[in-house]
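User: Study the chain.
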Amino acid sequence: MKKILLGNEAIIQGSLAAGVSYVSGYPGCPSAEIGDDFAKIAAKYGVYVEWATNEKVGLESAIGASFSGLKTLVNMKSFGINVCSDSLLPLAYTGTKGAMVIVVADDPSCWSSAQTEQNSRAYSQFGHIPTLEPADPQECYDFTKLAFEISEKFKTPVILHTTTRVNHQKMPVIFEEVKTGNQFKKGEFIKNPHQFTTMPPRTLEMKKELLDKIKKIQAFTEKSKINEIDLGKGSVGIITSGVSYLHVKEALKVLKLDLPVLKLGFFYPLPEEKIKKFIKPLKKLLVVEELDNYFERELNVLTRIANAKLQIFGKNVLPVIGELNTEKVCVALAKVMGKKFLEFKIRNLKLEIPRRTARLCEGCPYWYVFPTLKRVAPNAIFTGDIGCNMIAGMSPHNIQDTLFSMGASLGIAHGVSKSTNQKVISIMGDGTFFHAGISPLLNAVYNKSKPLMIILDNRITAMTGHQQNPGMGKTLMGEDTTEVNIEEIAEACGVKNIKVLDPINMKELEGTVKEFLEKDEISLIICKRICALLERRQKKS
């Protein structure tokens, strides 16, 4: 079967072809479509799909399913692997029972992930977790299938590392049509504390088993066809992976060069013998990878054994910040080859393109909240959080003083409140509260802090594409479930000053903010009004 697919859609098809039964994760760009689109077809293929309350819980959910013998897929954005790392690292020790593939989607150039330009490949080496890097949607499909095969063969989790340009790239993909299943088939958890429990001295034994397993997987990578060599001529070679390979191919066309290229489908463990064989006859090597120079550092070690005189070029000719593109690779390659390359720059056109920044949608309930806070408490410290409320830091609002990670607004607000005599206001969305806001709320109550927490409850996880959360009464698969009330959670945590209101009533909001800012203990205002886009969609359906 052949069809034009996004990279995320190809991952779904690869998972189905591999026989996946259980899908969990947390919505985040650029991987959110995996969960969203899987939910639309889950019942047809007999697959269970869920959005968990956060990535750690999503991974743990999949671990339980894997230990019960099911094939599982977990998806998240780059920062999600930080959230789930507490359970990810022990998982490498215990290994899996049913195959497990973890999609981790990075966002070079921070198109949607603003906090840091994270390179999640570090977790592969740090946690000793096999990692594959597809370059395009066809490889997304092929590599997903292979990842499940590796996981099943070696009883290990496998990371599928993607980036925005891979997840959201489109191309014709050849894939096999999968028969419908219609009913989710349950597994069985067979007790085996020797396998599933990490406790000393067993932990150290598990580490040795893991390292032995990695050696076997490394032998597997040496023979794998996804580590491809493009035969070319000359003593200058290129090593690359993922979407960077596509930029390399284009650059070679532009510069009319025919050079040997080694495209690594495996990021970890590396096929060291294949690399040594590739670099042995070379005089110069260009390593093309986005962001951090992980390959380059490894190659600096390998060259001492295979080709001590080899001159390696990497981040000395390529940027360590931002996405790569064909032009950047052309410039680097020209420097390595000693060729002239006329750079094409936008500024040479003397064309000023207006910079577009994020803004609130027309009718967004936040339009009532931000101006009120700015007017009522102009000198307050505003700690921001992840979600649509991030826009509070942009013009015309300009009221955000800190921004870190999901749930951090209240943790930071607590620290400022305890450390100063200033008024502090924490701003958080409803989806973020369920993800990571309950723990800092409990901490602020327990440690007698007094920030004002404002939860902007727009009835959906909005910024990543309208995904369900525990406050909606619906699961990802559309099933009715308990609608969790934020105010009841806050009350159970010990918060005494709680007010639920509609922010369109700006007079009530203003009066409540003034009142709660004078309290000597933490207070909570829940601004409850539906996302404007969601409301329009519901009216159309």
Q: What stands out?
A: The radius of gyration is 25 Å. Residues 2-223 form a domain with the Rossmann fold fold (CATH 3.40.50.970). Residues 125 and 381 are 40 Å apart (CA to CA). The chain has three domains: 2-223, 228-347, 366-540.
